[in-house]
Amino acid sequence: MARRNHNGLTDKWQVFADTYLADPELNATRAYKAAYPKASQQSCEARGSELLRNIKVAEYIQKAQKARSERTQIDADYVLKRLFEIDQMDVLDILKDDGSLKPIREWPKIWRQFLSGMDLSELWEGSGDERQIVGVLKKIKWPDKVKNLELLGKHVNVQAFREQKEVKVTLQSLIDELIG
Question: CA-CA distances (angstroms) from residue 142 to 94, 99, 113, 148?
């Protein structure tokens, strides 16, 4: 039997759990591969999921995630608030009436924090000493609003993308089902 550490985990379980917690996508397959490098991909997929259900591993991961949330002060409410702010971003907040961009210092904080990217390209004409800038091309990359709504919709209290069915069961219908 493998030795257990102070967390009640074997060395390999500890590697799995720590790798899982460090993975931005919480990918159990990759975590299992880190702990068991000789395992096949198919085995990693099955065993990674299985190891997440191990009581000791699950308890360790849950405690570590709770400690991280307390340390960073990032919880479900924080994430939902940020997702809502992204959903409320309006391009009019960063554009002047003529369609040109406002100076970045005038942009709302949400735009400065969540903009996915910004490309600037100078447009030149001529060559040699006659070469001159004739314009600047600015590309603003929005956060993925559809993905953002999907994440909001998957929240436990919203459940926008979850089918709901109402099932009425009576004691008599259960008895009839068992007897019949």
Answer: 12, 16, 11, 11
pLDDT band at 165 (very low <50, low <70, confident <90, very high): low
Phi and psi of 118, rounded to 5°? -150, 125
Structure tokens, 139: 């590309």
Q: How far apart are CA 141 and CA 119, in angstroms?
A: 8
> Could you give the CA distance from residue 89 to residue 110 in angstroms, rounded to a whole number?
7
Per the listing, tokens 């979850």 go with 162
Residues 6+ apart with CB under 8 A from 58: 52
Is the distance from CB of 19 to CB of 30 less than 8 angstroms?
A: yes
**More confidently predicted of 175 and 45:** 45
pLDDT band at 158 (very low <50, low <70, confident <90, very high): low
Residue-level pLDDT at 78? 82
Q: How far apart are CA 149 and CA 123, in angstroms?
A: 36
**Residue 107 DSSP label:** S
> Which of 28, 36, 41, 29 has its CA nearest to residue 11?
36
Residue 9 to residue 85: CA distance in whole angstroms: 40
**DSSP secondary structure code for residue 9 in this structure:** -
Taking the C-alpha atoms of residue 40 and residue 114, their distance in angstroms, rounded to an integer, is: 39
